Amino acid sequence: MLVVDDEQHLADLYTDYLADRYEVLTAYSGEEALDLLSNEVDVVLLDRRMPVVSGNEVLAEVEERGLRCRVAMVTAVNPDFDIIGIGIDDYLVKPVTRADLRSVVERLSKVATYNVKLQRLTAKKLKRNVLSVEKSPTELQESERYQQLERDIDALSDSVDELATDLNVEKSDLRL
User: Fold this and answer.
1) Distance separating alpha carbons of residues 164 and 112, to the nearest angstrom
2) What is d(CA 31, CA 107) in angstroms, rounded to the nearest whole number?
3) Which of 38, 76, 41, 39 is nearest to 55 (CA)?
4) pLDDT (tens digit per residue) in 128-167
5) Domain holding 12: CATH number?
6) Are residues 84 and 147 in the same domain?
7) Which of 81, 135, 143, 161 is 20 to 30 A from 170 via CA?
8) Which domain holds residue 156?
9) Among the three residues 37, 69, 96, which one is the final residue of a domain in this structure?
10) Rounded to the nearest 10 degrees, what angle do helices 98-134 and 8-18 cross at?
């Protein structure tokens, strides 16, 4: 996780709020955030207005690098319709509490896990579809690898459904 805020006391406070549950990197500027961004970062809590390199510019760099982290703006700027066009996952208006930050990080972590599992599930279902077209029902039944694929699909489906319930995602949106 990466906390980015040009107000050092806030960045340190947010880090303290989260450090007992997560591995947290802290950046006190947009430039420092750019140096710390990597594929190892799952969640970014990002101040929107910072001098020199703004939160929007950091966000643009996240997108340009193709990083898969989830991003929440944590800012004193009240949201307007412009947030529709920026690649954020959540938006918190300061002041924020420990509970606010922990809640958003937990939710975004679940979203990241959900996305990974949904991609794996999709790949496995596509393989199953190909095999079901190319192989006879008897061949499918006799193949231990195919039976394992079916078990994997069932387990991943259950896990994705559970995460979807936690995230209040409609299950009908999940089916291939």
Assistant:
1) 12
2) 27
3) 76
4) 999 999 999 999 999 999 999 999 999 999 999 998 888 8
5) 3.40.50.2300
6) no
7) 81
8) 108-173
9) 96
10) 60
